[in-house]
């Protein structure tokens, strides 16, 4: 061994987002001039730099290099002690590698973020938002969730009430909001509320949302019922006041004619039939039949009257796929603003565009083997404008809009009747978000909540 090394100090502490410096002293104990190259190794190597990266020493001389350790303020910099080392390789004798080791303790930090999905819920008797709690610190977090609102107009059922979240992970808390007073008639009312994430010894983190309570019966229906009641009362009063007085003179006529009576004339008109109750369901569409020999091309008209072939939708493709390969499948296609509908793709293939900046206005989805699917579109500025749209297996489900002036899609929510639905969404200006799946009985959200961005491409699996 022709090299002597020393780390000063051998143990140190560093804060995530900060930096600390350790001095490396080395002496050339050989008899030739040598150059030593430095290379950080170990779990802290990605965040370690050495200055200078190489040092040339004469025999019997000592040199110094500085190791700077700067872990980021992210969950990747796990709290606790970590070994670190520097590989020193002599140029003249590369086989004589020296690896001095030290110990670096990364201090813990906690940071919690929370977001309501969706931020606004609507309902007559309840609302069911989900609270996503993200642990972006480097140590485990235990937190509880509670709800409150001005005037104590809502009650809260939060499940689970307490969560433990590992660094870099997220937990979803389901909340059920119930109004303490039902609106029987009248317009909807907005009730702001707050879900607070509470940790021991830390100020609670509030997340604000809005519950839009709808009336049990719409206002126009209350007016219509009132008008019908008034008309009924008026009709009864007029009937009582102007009821016709009917008296029969049949007995008098018989007495005038004696004991002889006449049989009724056989030419008298028959009484009208009694009224029957009509069904309230709409009549079935009439069936049309072509004349024999007419053919599908319109005869000698050269095909001018032939019908255009129906467009290929997600339902036609998933039905054809299920016939060849029975089981769970999902097919879908995207409506690109300014371009129109794309061809349907299935089971993890991409629908949409990449790197073109094009916006998705609508999605067409169909499934097989999942007992149906339901979805909703999160659109620009209007957000959750439309209610959930649900269909059974093999039927087209449409969310969003293809109209020119309607808002484009920022994201979506989707689930299936049996099993799990998974999504991977591409948002403008970002990379693919990765495959994420819902839990049975829940739903999965994909895309962005930022009105400055938009949805560019999607992938689905079931």
| DSSP summary, beta strand count | 31
Taking the sheet with the most strands, its summary is:
5 strands, mixed
Radius of gyration: 39 Å
The best one-word shape is: elongated
Total of domains: 3
Mean pLDDT across all amino acids:
84
Tell me roughly what share of residues is in helical segments: under 10%
Task: Report the structural category.
Answer: mainly beta
Beta-strand share of residues: 35-45%
Region (Disordered): 258-311
Keywords: Hydrolase, Membrane, Transmembrane, Transmembrane helix
InterPro entries: ChW
Biased composition (Low complexity): 276-292
Overall description:
The protein is mainly beta. The chain has 3 domains: 3-106, Immunoglobulins (Immunoglobulin-like); 112-213, Immunoglobulin-like; 314-461, no CATH class. Helix content is 9%, strand content 40%. It has 3 helices and 31 strands. The strands form 7 sheets. It has a 5-stranded mixed sheet, with no helix packed on it. It has a 5-stranded mixed sheet with strand order 11-18-17-13-15, with no helix packed on it. Strands 19, 20, 21, 23 and 26 form a 5-stranded antiparallel sheet that branches. Strand 28 (422-427) and strand 29 (436-437) form a beta hairpin. The longest helix has 23 residues, at 219-241. The radius of gyration is 39 Å and the shape is elongated. Residues 246-304 have low confidence and may be disordered.
Short structural description:
Helix content is 9%, strand content 40%. It has helices at 219-241, 250-257, 314-324, and strands at 3-8, 11-14, 20-28, 34-41, 48-51, 54-57, 62-69, 80-90, 101-106, 112-117, 120-123, 130-135, 141-148, 154-159, 162-165, 170-179, 189-198, 205-213, 329-336, 340-341, 345-346, 351-352, 360-368, 373-379, 389-391, 397-400, 409-416, 422-427, 436-437, 444-447, 455-461. The protein has a five-stranded mixed β-sheet with strand order 2-9-8-4-6, with no helix packed on it. The protein has a five-stranded mixed β-sheet with strand order 11-18-17-13-15, with no helix packed on it. Strands 19, 20, 21, 23 and 26 form a five-stranded antiparallel β-sheet that branches.
């Amino acid at each position: 061994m022709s090299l002597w090394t020393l780390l000063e100090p051998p143990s140190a502490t560093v804060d995530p987002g900060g930096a600390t410096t350790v001095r490396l002293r080395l002496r050339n104990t050989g008899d030739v001039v040598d150059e030593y190259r430095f290379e950080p190794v170990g779990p802290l190597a990605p965040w370690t730099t050495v200055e200078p990266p190489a040092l040339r020493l004469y025999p019997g001389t000592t040199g110094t290099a500085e190791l700077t350790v700067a872990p980021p303020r992210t969950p990747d910099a796990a709290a606790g002690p970590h070994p670190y080392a520097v590989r020193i390789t002599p140029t003249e004798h590369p086989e004589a590698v020296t690896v001095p080791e030290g110990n670096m303790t990364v201090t813990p930090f906690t940071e919690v973020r929370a977001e309501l999905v969706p931020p606004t819920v609507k309902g007559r008797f309840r609302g069911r938002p989900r609270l996503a709690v993200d642990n972006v610190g480097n140590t485990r977090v235990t937190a509880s969730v509670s709800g409150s609102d001005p005037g104590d107009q809502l009650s809260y059922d939060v499940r689970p009430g307490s969560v433990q979240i590992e660094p870099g992970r997220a937990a979803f808390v389901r909340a059920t909001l119930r109004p303490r007073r039902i609106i029987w008639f009248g317009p909807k009312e907005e009730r702001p509320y707050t879900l607070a994430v509470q940790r021991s010894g830390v100020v609670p983190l509030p997340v604000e949302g809005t519950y839009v309570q709808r009336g049990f019966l719409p206002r126009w229906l209350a007016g219509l019922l009132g008008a019908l009641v008034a008309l009924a009362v008026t009709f009864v009063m007029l009937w009582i006041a102007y009821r016709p007085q009917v008296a029969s003179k049949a007995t008098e006529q018989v007495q005038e004619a004696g004991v002889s009576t006449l049989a009724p004339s056989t030419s008298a008109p028959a009484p009208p039939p009694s009224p029957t109750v009509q069904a309230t369901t709409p009549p079935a569409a009439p069936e049309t039949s072509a004349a024999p020999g007419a053919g599908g091309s319109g005869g000698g008209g050269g095909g001018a009257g032939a019908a255009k072939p129906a467009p290929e939708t997600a339902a036609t493709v998933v039905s054809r796929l299920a016939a060849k390969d029975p089981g769970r499948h999902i097919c879908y296609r995207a409506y690109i603003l300014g371009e129109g509908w794309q061809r349907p793709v299935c089971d993890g293939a991409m629908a949409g565009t990449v790197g073109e900046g094009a916006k998705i206005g609508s999605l067409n989805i169909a499934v097989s083997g999942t007992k149906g699917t339901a979805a909703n579109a999160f659109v620009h500025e209007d957000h959750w404008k439309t209610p959930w749209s649900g269909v059974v297996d093999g039927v087209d489900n449409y969310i969003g809009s293809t109209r020119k002036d309607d808002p484009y899609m920022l994201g979506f929510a989707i689930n299936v009747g049996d099993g799990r639905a998974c999504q991977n969404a591409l948002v403008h200006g970002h990379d693919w978000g990765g495959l994420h799946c819902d839990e049975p009985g829940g739903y999965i959200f994909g895309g962005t909540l930022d009105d400055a961005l938009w949805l560019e491409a999607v992938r689905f699996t079931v």
